[in-house]
Structure formats: structure tokens, C-alpha cells
Amino acid sequence: MLFTDDLKCIQSDIKKTLRPSNAPTPPSNFGSPSHGKLKADEWRACIEFDLPVSLAKLWGGEVADGDHDYALALESTFLLAMAIRYATSHRSTPRHLEKYLNYMQKYLQTVLDLHPSGKLLPNHHNALHLPKFMEYFGPIHGWWMFPFERLIGLLQKHKTNFKFGELEETVIKTFCATSYLKRLLN
């Protein structure tokens, strides 16, 4: 449902949005092949705020005119944004878990409604088990892997010349020092 002009508008909105310094910023070339695959944290940043706002701006007229497909796609986007918001909250109370599960189930239903011949994927199924993990382990912030994803991405970009240990030690020390400094500044 996204056309090239829609994508350009979303990219423009991302560039124009002012954010707090500690808020993740989606890539300004979101959706273009030049960016490559988005990391989980970049997807989260896009879906939590940028996509819902941009799509509401883009598709508001079609929804107001009664276009069912645009209305359902916009509703689906907002449901996913709300599910992510509850999942990534710093709380894992029974109410938060219930809200997350409710939004996720409604989101998955809209996916099926938008694509009646499509099938849900294993990640969709796994998302329904997230509340149990949050109940066992607490808020996701305590056990998610975004920092390690970034570290692995950095390591993959460096040539090691088969000298194992030196680069890893330097990178992990730098990563730890940067994390410590960031925590102090926040």
C-alpha cells in the first residue's frame, strides 16, 4: 500500500522530527535499498512514532472518505505501535501484560483481515508468548539484545586478518567505556 511518494513523505517526516537526544532516530533513508536491513531497535523507533504519525497524515483523507483498506491499515499500524509501547515499557505489571496482549491480538487480526490469503509467521506466534517472559524476567529493557546487536554489527564491519582476540578486546572495552559514559551523562 506504500507508494514511492508515500515513502518520500515518511523519510521527509523522519528528517524534520525533533527528538530528545536520548530517543532513537530511525534512519533518514528508511525503506530505501541503500539503507539495507533495519535492526530491531530501528524498527521499534519507526513503528512507535514515525510511521503512525506519517501514515495518519498521508492517509487521513482516504480514511475520512471511507476507504476501508486504508482505515484498516492505519488501525493495524496504531495497534502495533500500542503493543510495542506496552511491551517496551519499564513496567511489567499484570495490567501492562494484559494491554500488550490485547493490542497484539487485535493487530494480528487486522493483519489477517488485510491479507486473507496470507499466513501468520512464527514471529507473530512468538509475540503472543512475550507476556509470559515479561512476567518471568521483568521489563524487556532488562533482557533485550539491542546493545549486542549493535556490537555484532560493528564487529562484522571490521577486518580481523584472522588475529583473534585483539580487536574483540578493544571493541568490548570501548563499548563498555561508551556505555558507562552515556549512563553518567544521562
TrEMBL record:
Q: Where is this region: Disordered?
A: 17-36
Q: Which domain of life is it from?
A: Eukaryota
Identification of the protein by name:
DUF4218 domain-containing protein
- The organism is Coprinellus micaceus
